[in-house]
Amino acid sequence: MRVIISLLIFVSLFGSCARKNDHIGKTPLVEVDGHFLYKEELRTAVPEGLSKDDSLLFAEHYIRNWAEDILLYNKAKSNVPDNGEIDKLVENYRKALIMHTYEQELINQKLTEELSEQEITDYYEKNRNLFVLEHPLIKGLFIKVPLTAPRVNKVRKWYKMKTSEAIDYLEKYSLQNAVSYEYFYDKWVSVSDILDKIPLKGLTPENYLQINRQVELKDTAYYYFLNVSEYRKSGEQEPYELAKFEIKDMLINMKRVEFMRNVKDDLYQRAMSNKKIINY
C-alpha cells in the first residue's frame, strides 16, 4: 500500500514535467528502462466492484508484474542473439492475425448465418451415419418416495400414465412426499443419469430398461418408480432434436469456408486479369 501511495505522490509531482514529454495526453505512472506504464492503463485494468483496499492491492501486483515483464524481456533480449527465425515467426503471426481479423469482419458484414429448418433436416437425413449414439438415451418420468409415504398405490397407477391429469397428480404429490421427481417425457436424457438414481445391482441396466419400460423397485428406505416412454440404445441414430444443434454449427462453418474460398478465388482471378500475378 505504501508503494501505491508513493506512486500517486510521484504522479502528482511528475505531472507537470510529464506534460513536457510526448505522452499523448496520458499520465506516466512508472518508467522502467524507457518503457512507461500510464495511470489510465492501470485504471482500465482494475476490475470493477473491488473495495478500496482490494483495488490498491490489485494495482500494486499489476505494477510489479508489469515492471518484472519489462525487466525480463530486456534481459532476454540482451542474451538472445538476433534470430531471424523469431522475426519470421512474429511476421507470420502478424500476417495470420490481420487476415483472420479481416475474414471475421467480412463474414460478419457479408455472410448471413441464418439456416432454415429444412436445410438442417435434409443434412440430418442424408448423413445419418454421422449421428450415432455412443450412449443410450431415454425419455420418461422418475419418482422416488419413502416407504412410509402415503397413497403409494396411487403413485403406482399415476406413474404409468402420460395423461395431463396423472402428471398433475404426481407433481402435486411429489411436492409434499417425494424425495426426487423428474419429468422428462419431452427431452432425451442419458440412461446412466437415471440409473444412478435406482438400485439395479446385479442386473444389466441397459438390457433391463429395453425390456422393462415400467420399473418399480425398492430398498430398505425408498420406492423407485420409472416409466420409460422412449428408448434409444447405443449404436442407433442420434435423435434429431439433439443432433440439430451440432448440424447447425457444421453447416454455418461450411458456409463460412465456402464464402472465404469464393472471396480468395475472386481476388486471385482479379489479380490475374490485372496482371498483378507474374509467373516466371
Describe, in plain words, how this protein is organized in 3D.
- The protein has 280 residues and is α+β, with helices and mostly antiparallel strands.
- The protein is built from ten helices and six strands.
- It has helices at 2-18, 39-45, 52-79, 84-110, 117-126, 152-158, 164-177, 191-195, 205-211, 240-273, and strands at 28-32, 35-38, 137-146, 180-190, 214-218, 222-232.
- The strands form two sheets. The protein has a four-stranded antiparallel beta sheet with strand order 4-3-6-5. A two-stranded antiparallel ribbon has the order 1-2.
- Strand 1 (28-32) and strand 2 form a beta hairpin.
- Helix 5 (117-126) packs across helix 10 (240-273).
- The longest helix has 34 residues, at 240-273.
- The chain is extended.
- The termini are far apart.
- The model is unreliable at 1-20 (pLDDT under 50).
Strand content: 15-25%
Distance between the termini: 67 Å
- Lateral arrangement of strands in the main beta sheet: 4-3-6-5
The low-pLDDT segments are: 1-20
Number of helical regions? 10
Tally of extended strands?
A: 6
Give the biggest beta sheet: 4 strands, antiparallel
Shape: extended
Strand and helix order = HEEHHHHEHHEHHEEH
Helix fraction bin: 55-70%
Mean pLDDT level = 87
- Which structural class do the helices and strands define? alpha+beta
CA gyration radius, whole angstroms: 33 Å
